[in-house]
Write a structure and sequence with these properties.
With 436 residues, the protein is an alpha/beta fold. It folds into two domains: 196 residues, NAD(P)-binding Rossmann-like Domain (Rossmann fold); 188 residues, Rossmann fold, CATH 3.40.50. It is 44% helix and 14% strand. The strands form three sheets. Strands 3-2-1-4-5-6 form a six-stranded parallel β-sheet, with helices on both faces. A six-stranded parallel β-sheet has the order 11-10-9-12-13-14. The protein has a two-stranded parallel sheet with strand order 7-8. The longest helix has 32 residues. The protein is elongated. The termini are far apart. The structure holds nicotinamide-adenine-dinucleotide. The site of nicotinamide-adenine-dinucleotide (NAD) has 28 residues, from α1 and α5.
Length: 436
């Protein structure tokens, strides 16, 4: 099939490279000309494991192309995927302007019978609204619209796309469903469950899935708060409850709260949709509140340990990406926590293996460091906020030896309290009592 993808970001690029890998002819289009030029030079503008190799082999096989020109790049497409951003508006609802703009951009140039596939995460009803936008621009053109939400995770995007637990698509038009079935046939042939449903259901499935996963994180973080107060260990509690197959063990790692480009904005949009349609999502409203308060709470734990020395203290922050194996810093807990420390007079040194360039655009007054030891040097405290493997492997005695102070806040539970024996550190972690 001939496919075009509008938006060559984390989702669009991965989708494009993976659909080419499944044998389709794919053009990825982005309005950012510099990004397209880099892609054409064989460069991947984001950090995503395995994506570079997949792109290179599919470019070489003549199946994957890049363009900054929508008009010429969608004219022959059997299906056009919209994979542009859907950020939050100030009221929590989503900003659909990029999706609407993309729909307007393709309306005049798609061929008859083209299927417009919305891959961006959008609130229920969006496909219906986009259908009207395209019809308005193009009049009598016969085209179909479908929703095909994406469930990939940054850091494992390629394998998530090529070996998913399910593919979901929805359309009220059987012709669109037939085209999507054809597109995903190579995955169905490998045994992947491909769920076909209505447009509205597909849109609702994406938000409900993310809201539920975020609830698991919020819940275990609340349990962690209780463990800290009563001498429990959240890892043991999570392991114990996770053995019940109705609960499951995934997504029960307590930590600094959820961040990234999806959970915060998708939970806000889900809650806003509930308010708009008189179906309040009280659980999600409470979850959002708790998650937003978490960065301040964790900063205050560190400040309380530092006491009157907080003003003027040097703190090393290890990890700026919202999670490991990505350079994405959107709504990263790290970026939310740092300003609370700065407000209390702390000086921040920071390190991240991949995300320092992105973080530098959003933070002021930070010294970026070459590695974790460099960041920890002469610091009064070290806070770990991203679970990079290179931090797990740190020589803690060397790290402690280079510090001026003795505070280690391990907000990803990379180590066990027993690892602190003989280190003379004050060890704060999540959901476990502090060790002095
Ligand atoms: P992104 O910001 O990385 O990429 C969006 C790209 O679209 C940008 O490169 C931008 O230049 C381009 N763009 C915007 N308008 C355009 C237009 N009219 N024509 C051409 N290009 C245009 O965003 P992302 O992280 O890939 O997310 C895209 C969508 O997928 C969002 O709705 C998001 O919620 C959803 N999603 C993201 C993830 C994830 O992990 N990032 C996972 C699942 C779903």
């Amino acid at each position: 099939m001939r496919l075009s993808i509008i938006g060559a970001g984390y989702v669009g690029l991965t989708t494009g490279a993976c659909l080419a890998e499944l044998g389709h002819h794919v053009i990825c289009i982005d309005m950012n000309e510099e990004r397209v030029a880099r892609l054409r030079d064989g460069e991947v503008p984001i950090y995503e494991p395995d994506l570079h190799d997949l792109m290179t082999s599919n470019i070489g096989a003549g199946r994957l192309f890049f363009s900054a020109d929508t008009a010429t790049s969608v004219a022959d497409a059997d299906a056009v995927f919209i994979a542009v951003g859907t950020p939050s508006l100030v009221d929590g609802d989503i900003d659909l302007s990029f999706v609407q703009e993309a729909a307007r951009g393709i309306a005049k140039v798609i061929k008859p019978n083209c299927v417009v596939v919305v891959k961006s995460t959008v609130v229920v009803g969006t496909c219906k609204a986009l259908r009207e936008i395209i019809a308005e621009e193009r009049g009598a053109l016969d085209f179909s619209i479908a929703s095909n939400p994406e469930f990939l995770r940054e850091g494992t995007a390629v394998s998530d796309f090529l070996e998913p637990e399910r593919v979901v698509f929805g359309s009220d038009d059987p012709r669109a469903c037939a085209v999507l079935e054809q597109i995903y046939k190579p995955l169905a042939d490998r045994g992947v469950t491909v769920m076909r449903t209505s447009n509205a259901n597909a849109e609702l499935i994406k938000y409900s899935a993310n809201a539920f996963l975020a609830l698991k994180i919020g819940f275990i973080n609340d349990v962690a708060n209780l463990c800290e107060q009563v001498g429990g260990d959240v890892s043991a509690v999570a392991a114990g409850i996770g053995l019940d197959s109705r609960i499951g063990s995934a997504f029960l790692s307590a930590g600094p709260g959820f961040g990234g480009s999806c959970f915060p904005k998708d939970t806000r949009a889900f809650a806003a949709t509930g308010r708009k349609h008189d179906a309040p999502q009280g659980l999600i409203e409470t979850l959002i509140e708790g998650n937003e308060a978490r960065s301040q709470m964790l900063a205050e734990r560190v400040l309380a340990e530092l006491g009157s020395d907080a003003d003027g203290a040097t703190i090393a922050v290890l990890g700026l990406a919202f999670k490991a194996n990505t350079d994405d810093t959107r709504e990263s807990p790290s970026l939310a926590l740092i300003p609370w420390l700065q407000k209390a007079g702390c000086r921040i040194k920071a390190h991240d293996p991949k995300a320092m360039m992105e973080a530098a655009k959003q933070l002021d007054d930070i010294s970026f460091c070459e590695d974790a030891y460099d960041a920890a040097k002469d610091s009064d405290g070290v806070i770990v906020l991203t679970e990079w493997d290179e931090y797990r492997r740190l020589d803690l005695a060397r790290l402690a030896g280079t510090m001026r102070g003795s505070l280690l806040a391990d907000y990803r539970n990379l180590w066990l309290p027993s690892d602190m024996t003989d280190l003379d550190l004050t060890y704060l972690s999540i959901g476990r009592p502090t060790i002095h």
